[in-house]
Amino acid sequence: MRVAVVVRSLKIGGMERVAVNLAEAFADEGHESHLIYFKEKGRVFTPKTSVHLHHFNLDKILRLTLIGAVLGLFAKLLNALYRNSFFLYNGLLLAPIFQYKLTKLEKEYGKFDLIIMRGHGTFELIWPFRDERVVQMVESVFIRHGSWLDDLYIRCVYSRKNLAGVSSGVKERILEVLKASSVEAKSVEVVHNPLDVALIQKKADEYKPDIDEQYILSVGRITPNKNISFLLESYQYAREHLALSLPLVLVGGGHDLPNIKSKIETLQLVPHIKLLGLLENPYPWMKQACLLTSTSKAEGFGMVLVEALACHTKILSTKSKGGVRDIMVGELENYLVDFKIEEFAKKIVQSLTEKKELDFEAFTHPFLPSSIVKKYKELYL
Prior knowledge:
Layout: E1 2-9, H1 14-28, E2 32-39, E3 51-55, H2 58-64, H3 66-81, H4 86-109, E4 114-118, H5 120-123, E5 134-138, H6 148-158, E6 162-165, H7 168-181, E7 187-190, H8 197-203, E8 216-219, H9 228-241, E9 248-251, H10 257-266, E10 273-277, H11 283-288, E11 291-294, E12 298-299, H12 303-310, E13 315-318, E14 321-322, H13 324-327, E15 336-337, H14 341-353, H15 360-364, H16 369-380
Parallel strand pairs: 1-2, 1-4, 2-3, 4-5, 5-6, 6-7, 8-9, 8-11, 9-10, 11-13, 12-14, 13-15
Helix pairs in contact: 1-16, 2-3, 2-4, 3-4, 9-14
């Protein structure tokens, strides 16, 4: 089988990392796997040599043609008049270029049996492109609808296409938006993100974290949705009322970081919190952590939780919207907590002190690459 995974960029991020994991999963299962990306800026990920990597620089090709450059400028002017409408004109310009590049690639390697596109940032760039072999993987529950422009976006990006959510929660959101927008997709399924447990465990041993004591960990972009303020307040409560003494380590960067730094100072937690910023390989920190916490308001899937399980690290999560409940099953349901500071603080302390051993392999098995590849084949071939 010949498969292409298409993603907007390969910068640091969960979606980008998963795109690489998926391309490698197909290659590891003996299939011819290709990874196509559009944006070179900020690239940090490179797949295994068993994956064919292709950079389709659609913007550059558009700029190199006089008519393309003029039309691109015209699209930007129209976007100034109708805010958030740039995807509409830009897609009309870039989709034919993508079709040309794909056709050229298939002349060299042969026809693809399956084309998997990941994320709205990818879909909208080439939304007019239609092909029965394409599956659009929706990563997030944050799908706007209601205004005429939002509903037009849904119609352009989703109508008569194969859609799949990365979790049951995302699928529910897709169906809700389709109904509200009076748009019909060709199909709507669920396919979870793949997890290369062996690779994560290997990377977890690449270096030793620069800390001499036990600690609690949070990994993810520092944005309002990640709800780090809630984590800080829960952590402070646990220190003041529940005798918690372990430091808290935050891995990640984002536009909400200044607010989080201010919050840390306000709560007088500066001596107890370590800010590491973005890490290309956070797994050694995961492996050594006593507990990984997730306090997001919503998660498309919650990959960081599964990655922590692969590192044999306990996890604790809020009852966020989206895909967390697909991960927190069986015994792990006991580590799902309401958005209540005192309750979350108590659960942190309880998780740290209990001696119960978890069957980490059982909880990661549904997300193994072989299982995910099999799911794609069952649904789309």
